[in-house]
Amino acid sequence: MKYVLKKIITLLLALAARAVVHRxxxxxxxxxxxxxxxxxxxxxxxxxxxxxxxxxxxxxxxxEFGVPFTIFGTTVPHPLHNPFAWLKVVKNALALxxxxxxYPNLLVxxxxxxxxxxxxxxxxxxAPDMVVVTRLPxxxxxxxxxxxxxxxxxxxxxxxxxxxxxxPLIVSADDPYALEYAMRTSARLILYGTGGDAAARxxxxxxxxEGEKVAGMRANARLREESQEYVVRGTxxxxxxxxxxxxxxxASAFEIPLAEALEALQGYESPPGRCRLLxxxxxxxxxxxxxxxxxxxxxxxxxxxxxxxxxxxRIAVLGDMLELGRYSVLEHERLAPVVSASADLxxxxxxxxxxxxxxxxxxxxxxxxxxxAAAAALPGLVREGDVILVKGSQSxxxxxxxxALLADPADAVKLVRQEQKxxxxx
Length: 426
Description:
The protein is of the alpha/beta class. Helix content is 34%, strand content 21%.
C-alpha cells in the first residue's frame, strides 16, 4: 500500500511541478555528480543571486520529491509520516497555478540518484538550461544499486545530455570521466578546477591561518584574465574550494565579473558535516566530515588531515563506507595504507571499517562497534594539539562522535542531522 501511495504522490507532484515550470519559464541550473553537489549548489546560487531572483534546493533535497518541493517553494516531512503536511504543498501548487505570482526567474536545482532511473524521472519534470557536474569518481557511492560504477557515472552525468545545443555545461577540468562524457554532447563546455585549461581556476591553494590557528583555506581565484585571492573560513581541504571554482565558471557563463562573483561568495560557508573546523576537547581541533563517506571522499579527507599544519598528533576516526556493494571489501582494504600514512591514531567504527587499520605501520589503533561506543571512549583519548578527522557514511551516525568531542556542547547546532527525526533513530 505504501508503494502504491508513493507512486501516486510522485506522479501528482511531477505533473504539478511540470505545470508550474511551464507557466513561469524559469531558467534552470542543474547541479549533478557523485560528491560535492550541495556545496556547489549553494555557491552557484550565491553568485547568481546578484543578478537574478533565485530559488535553490534547500539542504540536499535532490530527489523526485525534493525537486518538486523546490519548484513549489515549500518543504514538508516525508508524506507517509505526515500526510497532513501535504495541505501546504497542495495550497502552494494551486496558488502558483491559479493566481498571479512573483516567481523566481532562475532555479538552482541539486539532483541526485540513489538507484537507476532516478534522474530520468526528474528530467521528465524539468529540463536544464545549464548543467554543473561535480566529481564522478572511480567507485561512486550508491554503486551497490547499479550494474557497475560506469552505470552510476552515466546516470549522474545524464542531465548534460538533456541540454540544448551550445547551452553551458560546467565540468571539472580535473575529472577525466566528466571530460570524456562531455565530448559526447553538443553543449558549450566551460571548465573549472585546478588544471591549467580551466576557465575558472584555483591555484596557490593553502591553509588560511588567523594568528597561529588554521581558520580555513585560501587560493588565487582566476577567471579567464582576472585574478583575486579568495578565503573560505571555517572549513579545510582543497575540495571545499572547488564549489567556488564551479560557481565562478557559472559566473563566466552569465558574464558576471570575478570581483562581483567573489563579493557574493564572501558569506559562503560549507554545509554542516563537510570538513568543518570545530573546537574539540582539551585544546584539540575537529575536522567534522561526518555527513557521508565514499572512497574518493575518504582519500581527500585523509590528504587534508595529513597536510594539516602545526599538529602534535593526527587522529582519523573512520566509520564504514556503505552502499558500495561488491566493491566494499576491496575499497576499505585499498585505503588502509593511505589511512596508515595519514594518522598517528586510527579509530574505526563498524565492522567494515576495521579494514582501514589492516595495513602495517606505527599508528595506534582502537576499534569500536558503533558510533555510540566510540563517542563514549574517544574523549578520554584526546590530548592538546590533536587534530581529529571524523568521517563515516550517514547510517553510521559519526556526528554523535563529533558531538562527544566538542569543547563547547552548544556547538552541536553546527553539526549535521540534528533534527529530532534523526535524534530519535537508534
